[in-house]
Specification:
Number of strands: 13
Largest sheet: 7 strands, mixed
Oligomer: single chain
CATH architecture of the largest domain: Beta Barrel
Mean pLDDT: 88
CATH topology of the largest domain: Elongation Factor Tu (Ef-tu), domain 3
Shape: elongated
Number of helices: 2
Structural class: mainly beta
CATH class of the largest domain: Mainly Beta
Number of domains: 2
Length: 207
């Protein structure tokens, strides 16, 4: 199947978020099956446009291929997966060729969250503050969010303010960036201020 056969002529949004991966075909009529990433199901089900991107072949290139858009005719949950019917895709063997593609959705298409809830993707890039000797200090910036099965975990690239007030990365003895894992639970992260890209926690700063 040529990608253009199921593509729609859309400009690539600059706010695409990876929400899952095609795990194979579903049924005999060209439906695909997607294994969603944590907390990705609601946005996948709401959006009528998915963006697919083929994973790079390590031996050939590390660069990501350009995404292309597909129109979603129907989608629903199927156990722990999501299955969908795409415009122009009616054959199982053609659907199977999409296996391994990552599935992306524009952040603008995410459904609204309830009060007190956030999308994990919105936490990436936020500065996390903690405590050191009774003072509020910069711990670092959220570089990613993981799911340990019980709750989300923030992967924080460590940073600190130098005497001139400039943000500097913290490095280990070999010059590698230091990271800290912080459970994203109310007991530790008590304030989420997305407008100012700032998270407040009681996590201790270790230098």
């Amino acid at each position: 199947m040529a990608e253009s056969e199921v593509s729609t002529a859309k400009a690539v949004p600059d706010d695409l978020v990876e929400l899952g991966r095609v795990s194979g075909a579903y049924g005999v009529r060209g439906w695909i099956k997607i294994q969603p990433h944590a907390a990705g199901s609601a946005a996948l089900l709401k959006s009528r446009t998915w963006w697919l991107r083929r994973s790079p072949v390590p031996a050939q290139t590390a660069e990501l291929s350009p995404p292309w858009s597909v129109k979603v005719l129907k989608s629903r949950t199927q156990g722990s997966t999501i299955v969908g019917s795409l415009e122009g895709l009616t054959d199982r063997s053609e659907a199977e060729k999409l296996r391994g593609c990552t599935v992306w959705v524009s952040r603008a298409m995410f459904p609204p969250v309830e009060d007190g809830e956030v999308y994990w993707v919105d936490l990436i890039g936020c500065s996390l503050y903690g405590e050191h000797e009774g003072n509020r200090v910069l711990l670092g910036v959220v570089d990613g969010v993981m799911d340990n099965g019980a709750h989300a975990v923030l992967r924080v690239k460590r940073q600190q303010l130098d005497p001139q007030g400039q943000v500097q990365p913290l490095l280990d003895s070999k010059g590698r960036p230091l990271e800290t894992l912080v459970p994203f639970v109310a007991a530790h992260v008590h304030t989420v201020d997305l407008e100012n890209r700032r998270l407040e926690s009681d996590w201790p700063a270790e230098y």
